[in-house]
Amino acid sequence: MMVGMMVPTAVPMTLVYAAVARKAHAQQTPIAPTALFVTGYITMWAIFSMVATTAQWTLDQAALLSPMLVTTSPTIGATLLIAAGLYQLTPLKHACLAKCRGPIHFLAQHWRPGRNGALRMGVEHGLYCLGCCWILMGLLFLGGVMNLLWIATITLFVLLEKMIPLGAQGGRLAGVAMTTLGSVILARTLYN
Fold first, then answer.
1. How does DSSP assign 152-169, residue by residue?
2. ∠ CA 2-42-150, rounded to 5°
3. What is the pLDDT of residues 67-96, one digit of tens each?
4. Nearest CA to 123 among 43, 64, 11?
5. What angle, rounded to 10 degrees, do the helices at 11-26 and 34-61 form?
6. How far apart are CA 181 and CA 187, in angstroms?
7. How confident is the model at residue 192 (pLDDT cuts 50, 70, 90)?
8. Is 37 helix (H, G, I), strand (E, B) or coil?
9. Alpha-helix runs per DSSP H in the chain
10. In DSSP terms, which residues pair with 65 in a beta bridge?
């Protein structure tokens, strides 16, 4: 599911790599297939998925998840919102987001020749994407890991943050909103 969420957000980068590959092929200087680049990207999210599955299993064993895989603990939900909101405001988040928002710039800086190079570039792009979005995936426990509308909402948020001109600013505003909402929920939980 994680791969299904994140591959659409890498479409701009994938299309740029594919365009470079087509041009190189037309000029009789073929480069590694786009599929290798995408495989590297997917590899990073598959590794992260194993970590997320471990977190899910741990929460489930502690009876902190509903049958729809929503946290049953308002404290955990609020903490996830606060953590995601604060991360949206960090320099690390924005450094990673900048790499995801500039496909041409990324390829110019990180170009590696050959099949291993394409795979490595995909892994590197996956690392930046992971650095940009990892905590947002934790919000799946807030709205439901199996809730398709929630999954689509997070995917759309990540895609818009990467693609629209004011995406980074919108991400910061969303970070403030998440932090505020999480703080309100946490305060209500602690004082009730």
1. HHHHHHHHHHHHSTTHHH
2. 20
3. 888 999 999 999 999 999 999 999 999 999
4. 43
5. 160
6. 10
7. confident
8. helix
9. 2-6, 11-26, 34-61, 74-87, 91-101, 103-110, 114-138, 140-143, 148-163, 167-191
10. 71
Candidates 92, 87, 84; CA nearest to 181 is 84
Q: What is the pLDDT of residue 7?
A: 87
Look-up of token digits 């404290």: 75
Contact 141, 69 (CB under 8 A): yes
Main-chain dihedrals φ then ψ at residue 30, nearest 5 degrees: -60, 150
DSSP code of residue 89: T
**pLDDT tens-place string over residues 124-155:** 999 999 999 999 999 999 998 888 999 999 99
Q: How many residues does the chain have?
A: 192
Ramachandran assignment for 189, one of left (phi > 0), alpha (psi -120 to 50 degrees), beta (any other)? alpha
Whether the pLDDT of residue 3 is over 80: the answer is: no
Total-model pTM: 0.89
Per-residue tokens: 143: 């709205």
75 within 8 A of 59, measured Cβ to Cβ: no
Question: By three-state DSSP, how is residue 90 classified?
Answer: coil
* 111 φ/ψ sector (left φ>0, alpha ψ -120 to 50, else beta): beta
| Dihedrals phi, psi of 54, to nearest 5 degrees | -65, -40
Q: Which residues, in sequence order, are CB contacts of 74 under 8 Å at separation 6+?
A: 185, 186, 188, 189
Look at the block and give the residue holding tokens 């902190």. 64
